[in-house]
Amino acid sequence: MVSSHDFIEDKRNKNIKIYINGKFYKRKKAKISVFDSANMLGDGCWDSLRYHNNKFVFLKDHLDRLYKDAKLLDIQIPLNRKRLIEILNKTVKLNKMTTDGHLRIIISRGIKSTPYQSPKVTITEPSITIIPEFKKPDNAVYKNGLKLVTVNTIRGPLNVQNPQINSLSKLNCILACIEAQKKKGDEALMFDINKNISTCNSTHFFYIKNYNVFTSTGKYCVTGITRQKIIDICKKNKIKVYEKNFKLHDVLTADEAFVTGTFAGVVPVKKINNKFFKIKPNSLTYKLAEYYMDLINR
Predict the structure, then answer these.
(1) Taking residues 260-278, what's their average pLDDT?
(2) Which domains are present in the chain?
(3) Distance from C-alpha of 280 to C-alpha of 268, rounded to nearest angstrom
(4) Residue 8 has pLDDT above 80, yes or no
C-alpha cells in the first residue's frame, strides 16, 4: 500500500531540533504537557511547509491559512508573522536544512488547569510547536499512482465542524482513512453532505475529462494551497479548469485523475474503486506536475 505521504527514510531525522514555545529540544526530549489543549482535545490548528532549495515554498499562502484558521477557532497566535518567520528560518538553520525539508507548525489553545473543553480553563497563551524533518517524496508514488476508494465517512457541514479549517481535530479524516485502508485503498475519496465528491482524507482531488480539469467547489475541503496553485496554473496555460459539484459517476468516466498536497505536489491516481486509469508519460497530469515543479523551482 502506498501513500501520497510516502518518503525516503533519512537518518538525520533522529537528531532534529524541535521548537516548542521559545526553546529548541532534541527529538527525544521534545515534550508537551498532558494538560495541553492539543493533547487533551485536539484543540488547535496546524500547517505544513515544504523547504526546497533554501526557501519555504509559498510561505505567505501557508501563513495566511494558519492565521486564518486560528482566528476561526478564536485562537490568538502569540507571535506576529515576522517573528514566526524568524523562528522558521532559525529552525532550518539550526537543523542544517537546505532542501527536502518538511516542517509542521502546530498551534494549540494552550495548557488547561483541568481536563475540560471550555477555553475558560486555559491558563496559558497558545502553544507553538515546529517539527522539522528531512523528507523527500518517494518517486515510486509518481510512477505507480494511488488507489482511491469511496467511503461512508463524509465531509460535514460548516456548522458541525468547519471542514475548511486545518484543525488538530482530524477524527473525520482519520475515520475515512481507516475505512479506506480496510478496503485496501491508499486514500479515501470522500463525499460532501450532498453526495458530491469533495476531497480525499489527506489530499485534494482532481479529475480530467477531454483535457478539461475538474475539482470540487472547495466548500467542504481544507483551504488547499497546492490545489489553488494547480487551478492558477491551468488558467495561466489556457487549460480549462472548473470548480464545481460533481458525482461519482462523473469521476468514473474520466480520462485521468490526480491528487495534490504540500508534501508530494501532484500525484497521479491509478484506480478509483474498480475503475483503472492509465498513467501515461504524456498525460496532462504529468504536464501539470511539471508546471508545478517549475513554479516551486523559481
Answers:
(1) 96
(2) 8-136 (3.30.470.10), 140-296 (3.20.10.10)
(3) 10
(4) no
